[in-house]
């Protein structure tokens, strides 16, 4: 026995030193999906890219994650990921790819971490299957190819998981502290979303650690206290700093990080309360629909033949968004309607759910014969961990009032873990048992193939009938043949099992490649044949693989040649136009609310863009060039406007002021000069008052104001005062003479000048 234990130790040591040759192509696949052509995304998500540009200019901006170089307002998220992006930009230079690179590497790192986590307990083949499943989960590379936060968040949580597993194996308290501290770091990436894994951490530590209950409670209590301390550390520093010595906390209503964390970026995601104009009531359902309408319009304007495709998309959108009685069939942001089967609905299923039936069968197999009181094997304990990660997160996405499709990356690790561990477990049961357990493998293959056919069916016009029929036919045939050959243990059966796994991964692999094939969207990343639109739903028209811009957004005096009628989107009857949605985008064309609707606010999504009206930026005809101007905001500024503002600047701190960050971001990226977004991202943050603005003007900090009718929520008094006390600058001085001014929902944008003595 002693000799056998010695051999086992030597074998484990040898395995640790040996490179798994099967892992190499998996990592290369992940690298290709996450890195290839990110250099074509010149500005990525411009809201966040502008912040990196600002953070490069001073430690003050860096620490607070200031959106603008002047330190006026922050972005809507905590700073850790943007610190990393800024460091990357400092090392490699300020480019779109340099701010995307950390997230792309995090996506690859997540694949490696999952391999390590699964391999140790479930075996090397389970680790390989889990790694390839993670790499090919469509939403994973789609998000990792952008400068959004979620890819880095998942990597950090997986790193915390590795620390927790090590804490259990070594029974060392230091690793418990490190694991929970890492969750605290993740909180400073995307706030409460990081806490979604806490049930798994608590359950696993209690079940798996062989120490007394007294020590378990003491250790977990101490680790939780450390996690909370790390979580709120930055918030406490910011909130305790005098408001006049730091930027305003963007997208909050009280200039507080904690309010942002537990309200706007926290509980409001579950409840769907997206009001940001200072009111406490929940916005009506129609507001959510109109915001979805607004976002879909913006994201659909990416075809080179914009005049024709705009009408086609508008018609397609109307069919998708309008249910009888004005209901919403696909849900806000194409995330389906809340319910137990939401993850199987259009818009979500093709991002994350390709292997869910197989995962369900795997869970049944892995927990077969488990008794509630134990004892539990190592495999059962770790399976419990992944189940405690999967279920709460799945429940959240099934009932949440507001989220974007790319948030679903939170489900990728447990799904991939169960796919890997389950593939090996079900194969073993298939080979070794003659009871009901032997049917789990063919049953999982059959139901998973059926779901994949369902997922692909709305895309028949884009991908054709052949792949859909092929997956369905092969899935049925392989499942039936495996069922028939249950008692035959030969090499042909092994090949059939391997072929089945290849079939089940084939279409997720294609979907994962769509951001490369068709072009991605850095603002609202998603996968699918319409990935450049960022909506992840059935496409209404073909998309241009070289373009993910939105033709409807042009600077003053620069148009795409579209008539205004092609840029209009009619929201559902009775909708209101107030409220702000974080982390997405709004409308780039003309949005006309129906009669009787309110238009007191501006619906826009931090991390994306709002383009409900004319803006001093451009998605011009250059969209077909090799460099994609992605992210909803293009750094192709109106050069005539920029020349006028630069020439007439007499020492003012800000180049100009505007209502919202969408209009400001392109100029910050282009020039690195301060541009003031008076109302924060959407124009609805209560940052500025008339008296404060008067004082700034008297100090000579700002004198030019570009107003487009956007973002009046929380800023209406300021905008009214500007119009009443300013001199309008003739459009001939700053607008291009090549075309008329772009129209927005409140008319043409106007440049004003104010000087006070």
What does this structure look like?
With 757 residues, the chain is mainly alpha-helical. The chain contains 27 helices and nine strands. It has helices spanning 2-17, 23-35, 46-55, 59-64, 80-92, 96-122, 124-136, 139-144, 150-170, 173-190, 198-208, 213-240, 257-271, 285-300, 306-321, 349-352, 356-366, 378-399, 412-432, 440-456, 460-463, 465-484, 491-517, 639-647, 661-671, 690-698, 716-724; strands spanning 568-569, 590-591, 657-658, 676-677, 704-707, 727-728, 743-744, 747-748, 750-753. It has a five-stranded mixed β-sheet with strand order 4-3-5-9-6, sandwiched between helices. A two-stranded parallel ribbon has the order 1-2. A hairpin with a 2-residue loop joins strand 7 (743-744) and strand 8 (747-748). Helix 20 (440-456) runs antiparallel to helix 22 (465-484). Residues 1-8, 276-329, 540-625, 631-635 and 738-747 have low confidence and may be disordered.
């Amino acid at each position: 026995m002693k000799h056998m234990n010695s051999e086992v130790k030597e074998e484990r040591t040898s395995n640790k030193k040996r490179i798994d040759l099967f892992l190499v192509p998996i990592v290369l696949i992940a690298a290709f999906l996450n890195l290839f052509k990110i250099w074509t995304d010149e500005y990525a998500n411009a809201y966040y890219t502008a912040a990196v540009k600002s953070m490069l200019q001073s430690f003050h901006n860096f620490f607070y994650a200031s959106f603008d170089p002047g330190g006026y307002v922050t972005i809507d998220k905590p700073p850790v990921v943007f610190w990393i992006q800024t460091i990357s930009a400092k090392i490699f230079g300020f480019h779109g790819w340099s701010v995307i690179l950390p997230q792309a590497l995090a996506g690859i790192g997540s694949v490696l971490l999952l391999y390590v986590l699964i391999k140790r307990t479930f075996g090397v083949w389970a680790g390989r299957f889990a790694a390839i499943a993670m790499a090919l989960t469509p939403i994973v590379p789609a998000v990792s190819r952008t400068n959004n936060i979620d890819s880095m968040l998942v990597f950090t949580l997986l790193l915390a998981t590795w620390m927790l597993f090590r804490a259990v194996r070594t029974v060392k308290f230091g690793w418990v502290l490190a694991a929970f501290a890492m969750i605290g770091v993740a909180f400073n990436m995307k706030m409460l979303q990081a806490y979604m894994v806490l049930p798994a951490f608590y359950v696993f530590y209690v079940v798996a650690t062989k120490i007394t209950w007294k020590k378990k409670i003491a250790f977990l209590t101490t680790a939780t206290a450390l996690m909370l301390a790390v979580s709120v550390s930055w918030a406490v520093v910011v909130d305790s700093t005098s408001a006049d010595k730091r930027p305003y906390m963007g997208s909050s209503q009280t200039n507080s990080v904690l309010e942002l964390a537990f309200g706007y970026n926290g509980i409001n995601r579950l409840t769907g309360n997206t009001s940001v104009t200072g009111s406490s009531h929940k916005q009506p359902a129609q507001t959510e629909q109109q915001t979805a309408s607004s976002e879909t319009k913006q994201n659909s304007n990416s075809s080179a033949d914009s005049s024709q495709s705009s009408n086609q998309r508008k018609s397609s959108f109307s069919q998708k968004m309008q249910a009888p009685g004005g209901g919403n069939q696909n849900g806000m942001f194409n995330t389906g309607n809340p319910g137990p089967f939401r993850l199987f609905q259009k818009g979500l299923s093709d991002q994350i759910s390709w292997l869910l039936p197989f995962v369900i069968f795997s869970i049944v197999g892995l927990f077969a014969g488990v008794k509630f009181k134990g004892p539990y094997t190592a495999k059962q304990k770790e399976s419990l961990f992944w189940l405690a990660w999967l279920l709460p997160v799945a429940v959240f996405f099934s009932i949440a009032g507001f989220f974007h499709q790319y948030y679903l990356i939170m489900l990728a690790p447990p799904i991939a873990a169960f796919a890997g561990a389950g593939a090996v477990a079900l194969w073993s049961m298939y080979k070794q048992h003659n009871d009901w357990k032997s049917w789990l493998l063919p049953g999982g293959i059959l139901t998973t193939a059926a779901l994949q056919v369902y997922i692909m069916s709305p895309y028949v016009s884009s991908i054709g009938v052949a792949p859909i029929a092929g997956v369905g036919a092969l899935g049925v045939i392989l499942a039936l043949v495996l069922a028939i050959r249950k008692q035959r243990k030969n090499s042909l059966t092994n090949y059939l099992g391997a072929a089945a796994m290849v079939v089940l991964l084939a279409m997720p692999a294609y979907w994962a490649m769509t951001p490369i094939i068709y072009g991605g969207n850095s603002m609202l990343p998603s996968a699918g044949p319409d990935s450049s639109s960022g909506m992840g739903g059935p496409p209404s028209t073909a998309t241009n693989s070289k373009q993910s811009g939105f033709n409807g957004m042009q600077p003053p005096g620069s148009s795409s040649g579209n008539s205004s009628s092609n840029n209009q989107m009619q929201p559902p009857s009775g909708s209101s136009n107030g409220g702000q949605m974080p982390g997405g985008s709004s409308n780039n064309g003309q949005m006309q609310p129906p009669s009787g609707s309110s238009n007191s606010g501006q619906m826009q999504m931090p991390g994306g863009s709002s383009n409900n009206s004319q803006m001093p930026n451009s998605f011009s005809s250059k969209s077909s060039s090799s460099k994609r101007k992605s992210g909803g905001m293009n750094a192709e500024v109106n050069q005539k406007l920029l020349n006028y503002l630069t020439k007439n600047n007499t020492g003012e701190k800000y180049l100009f002021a505007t209502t919202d960050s969408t209009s400001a971001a392109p100029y910050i990226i282009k020039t690195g000069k301060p541009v003031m977004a008076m109302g924060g991202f959407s124009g609805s943050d209560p940052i500025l008052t008339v008296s404060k603005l008067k004082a700034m003007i008297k100090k000579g900090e700002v004198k030019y104001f570009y107003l487009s009718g956007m973002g009046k929520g929380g800023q209406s008094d300021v905008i009214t005062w500007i119009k009443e006390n300013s001199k309008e600058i003739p459009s001939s001085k700053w607008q291009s003479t090549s075309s008329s001014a772009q129209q927005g929902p409140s008319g043409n944008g106007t440049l004003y000048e104010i000087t006070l003595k």
